[in-house]
Amino acid sequence: MTDAFDDLDSARARIRSQVQDARERTAAVTVLAETVAATTATVRSARGEVTVTATAGARITDVTVADAALGLRADALGRLIRDTIASAQRAAAERALAAAEETLGADSGFVAGLRADVDSRFGELPGDTVLR
Q1: Are the C-beta atoms of residues 42 and 132 closer than 8 Å to each other?
Q2: Per DSSP, which regions of 19-129 are E strands?
Q3: CB 45 within 8 A of CB 80
Q4: In this predicted model, what pLDDT tens digit does every residue of 41-52 receive, in sequence order?
Q5: Cα dihedral sign for 45, 81, 55, 92?
Q6: Domain 39-131 part of CATH 2.60.40
Q7: Residue 17 DSSP class
Q8: Does the model's pTM come out above 0.70?
Q9: Pairing between strand 60-65 and 130-131?
């Protein structure tokens, strides 16, 4: 009969350990969600004419156009603003992705799906992007 009680005690210990692990993962994911919600990136165009701040959810929170931009043609300025916005959105998404990798591990299926989503939504950061 001792073996049955030992097996039962062992099963209870495993269950307690699994419950504790689940609580720790839940707490980590809660912190991750708060981190992602607060994640932003500020990007400046290569010559500093335009500066944009975006959230990890791609919301634009600030756009600043420097006096140097006033010498640009309207179409060039529009393109520069659009490209800087895209770069800020991508940079913020990359920061959120890095936080997810740190919390969940780079080999996490969730992180892989998030990486694919970031890549499909935002493409590559231009080589002349300046992160602040």
Answers
A1: yes
A2: 40-44, 50-55, 60-65
A3: yes
A4: 999 999 999 999
A5: negative
A6: no
A7: H
A8: yes
A9: unpaired
